Amino acid sequence: MSLCSSQTRMFADEVLAAYRTGRQITPLTRLEPTFAVADGERVGHEVARRRVAAGETVIGRKIGFTNRTIWEEYGVYSPIWGPVYDKTFHDVAGPAHAAIGHLVEPRIEPEIVLGFRAPVTAQMDERAILACVGWVAHGFEIVQSLFPGWVFQGADCQAAFGLHGALHCGPRTPVEGDSDAWMAALTGFAVTLYRDGEMVDRGIAANVLDGPLSAVRHLAGVLAADREASPIAAGEIITTGTVTRAFPIAAGETWSTQVEGIAVQPMRLSFV
Fold it and tell me: Is 70 helix (H, G, I), strand (E, B) or coil?
């Protein structure tokens, strides 16, 4: 399907109304069975324009479904992306608290976050992309589903801002020195995830399209093929996808991580 302007606006109305009221809606792919990823991109861009017009600022992007181990679980078999806004981004240092009552069916995703000091183009390989990275951090992305029961298709996710709810980013480690060591770290780390002190999952860098730099390379190619998308710019913050499976979260829980193989601080976040 190729949406006309009125259809794009109609679906954007649906997505934004659901987001602002905290209610869930029927997947767009059920309302219009020919609704494809390209349609989801158009709706997503319209949603982003309206959020910016309402006072939000795009500061970066999230990449979703880079973890191939969860594709079968969700029935989504390729990555998606969405904007990260100033109002959804939170720098945290040490243990912190976060409100989640405004999110629908929220889940937690431990991720590697990259801050860019130079633009990235679709022609770059992972080593060239590394040269554009100014800092690396570990963070929790909180995702949400506007679609009941986390049942959707990739096109639905693309339209609904990549399922992004919030990004809590830990302390930033400058990327400097031995590039070979950084390449090894960004392809060889592991993250163990805990809920209230009990281990729930462990993931490795290779889960994320073989590593965060490869995830960014994929995103750069997707953006280059999208006429409405801008390329990755200096100053952008990009979170590269969950290393473990995503898990439902609830107020009163404390989630934490242990990180091996890369010089970033672990996370500890309590939900209220």
Answer: helix
pTM of the predicted structure, to 2 decimals: 0.94
Could you give the 3-state DSSP secondary structure of residue 24?
coil
Residue 221: its pLDDT value, please?
97
How far is the C-alpha of 149 from the C-alpha of 218, rounded, in Å? 28
In contact, 27 and 156? CB cutoff 8 Å: yes
- In this structure, how many other beta carbons lie within 10 angstroms of the beta carbon of residue 130? 20
Beta-sheet pairing, 58-64 with 237-242: parallel
Q: Tell me the residue type at 13.
A: D
207-234 b/e (C-beta count within 10 Å ≥ 16 → b): bbbbbbbbbbbbbbebbeeeeebeebee
pLDDT digits (tens, 9 = 90+) for 32-55: 889 999 999 999 999 999 999 999
Q: Answer yes or no: is pLDDT of 1 > 70.
A: no
C-alpha closest to that of 20 among 206, 196, 183, 146: 146
